[in-house]
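Worked example 4.2. Below are the chains of a multi-component assembly; read each line carefully before continuing.
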Amino acid sequence: MKSEKITKLILIIASLVILLIFAGMAWAMIKGAYPAFQKFGFFGFLFSTEWNPTEGKEAYGAMPFIAGTVITSVLALIICFPLAFSTSLFIAEYFRKRRIAIILGTLVDLLAGVPSIVYGLWGFYTLRPLIASLGFQGQGYGIFTSGLILAIMIIPYATSISNEIITMVPNELKEAAYSLGATRLEVISSVIIPNSRSGLVAGYILALGRALGETMAVTMLIGNANIIPNGLFSPGNSMASVIANQFGEADGLKLSSLIAIGLLLFGVTAIVNAIGKIIIRKFA
Amino acid sequence: MKKLLAIVFVMSVFAAVAGNNQNTSTGNDSKSISISGAGATFPLPFYNQLIADYSTKTSMLVTYGGIGSGGGIRSLKDKVVDFGATDAFLTDAQAAEFSAPVVHIPTCLGAVVLAYNLPGVTSLKLKNDVLAKIFMGEITKWNDKLIKAENPEANLPDMSISIIYRSDGSGTTFIFSDFMSKISEKWSKEVGTGKTLKWPVGMGAKGNPGVAGTIKQTIGAFGYIGSEYAFAQKIPFVKLQNKAGNFIEPSVASVSAAAQGDIPADTRVMLTNSADPQAYPISAFTWIILYKEQSYNDRTLQQAEETVKFLSWVIDTDAQAVAQKVDYAPLPAKAVSLAKTILKSVTYKGTPIVK
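Applying the procedure described above to all two chains together yields the following structure tokens:
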């Protein structure tokens, strides 16, 4: 009985610590961001495209970074989806439990665990020169390359989750469909997809969440220009990347603005997750 | 459950014992003090070399964190380091934000070079107005006739100029933009001087190493870096026009020449666009900053003495000789004597530390 009580106590303390950390973080960020919001107004800060740290002309707005983050992440998702979905069908349905699928599945799981700086290095030294050689503007730095590297980073992640979901579709359903004379494609489109839709969407939302917060690989490839990108191959900057780049020297209003961007990134991630949950509930 | 508790208990005993050990060791050995500093990355290779030499010579432990000039200023303001380091001297307004007076000790001279990546082009000259036009985004191609006019022999390609700048706040950016503001009225009005700027064109990379690496990897790239990074990575750089109109290559001699003019008693001066006919135009002092009154935050006299002793050594002949080996220019005699006078004004509880 006594050990019961102790266990309970430990569990309560542990949960309280998590709550405290969360509250402390939220408090520190809101407090830190307050001067920026006070100076420019919440919506003024949100929608302003000016990022000018020169003394006397100081003005900060988050829009270039919100645009950079959202565009690269959505681009990544668009590139990632067909590849990840096909791969997971290959692994979890067409070649299920065959040696090639097992090897491929292990490889995908392995790739999902590679640290982002490694992707960044590969992107900087291999992928970027390749894109530069295609002759687009900006020597290979910019939105497109960042989106591409993000896609490559989240493909294993999305594939891994999709595999699990597709494997979970009950065999009875599939066998029933086959016994009625359905082709493989028909089984996929009318049994597997409808049964795993919400799980798949959740998987891609999680992948998008990873793309939104990714810092290192993006900062090495996006070009770090604090402007709203004017094309697919234009340089830009993302929210996580501008914070990583500029917090070291920042003070005063600039530091406050960077913290405010951090708060917004937190908000954007929360919204994306919320949308994911709504979609899941709608289709489930 | 009992097992778990036992483990927790054993671990906490270990932790307590370990903690005690630490306490007694610092208590017994009161001489084990160390000096810490943080700031600019521009002189980082120089400071690293100095600290290595100093610790073999005196067995005093000095640590230096290259976190950028702004970070160095903030660390000193927060009193978490013994000295800060910066490439941009404190303005009167910045100095007023400190709780006590701060003094500047110049440590060496450095140059900011304009490095480029153009295969087959080994020598390039740029006039001031052309340089300004490139960075304002008015000249976008390497084979622009204004660039060609000064470089008739160079085989300039029909290629876009990719401007690379520092994405993080930087003393190097401050020095470069200070020079640009002096040579171009338009730059001064539209962009200005600062550690980070609103750039008309181009893209950013993090830190001097980041910019150097990006230029090296990107054909057609053009950007500014601390000279030692260009020397070390063998990236070609431009001969710039100084105030007298001569095209000058950055070297120890041409950087030293920039410091031949008048230096104010507190050494707070920008040396860019020097009037000396042999001077390289983007030369600058880099400084170490510390509190004039060293008795703060329960600092011991010994701590203050060791800090000042280290800084006295930095501006003295032995350490200054190291500067050239790592591609910086040593302080001119005038600056050394000013720095010595400033160090003599540093006190502990009102008494000068150096007699």
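Take a moment to check your reading of the output against the notes. Residues 2-18+33-110+284-352 of chain B form a domain with the D-Maltodextrin-Binding Protein; domain 2 fold (CATH 3.40.190.10). Residues 15-30 of chain B have pLDDT under 50 and may be disordered.
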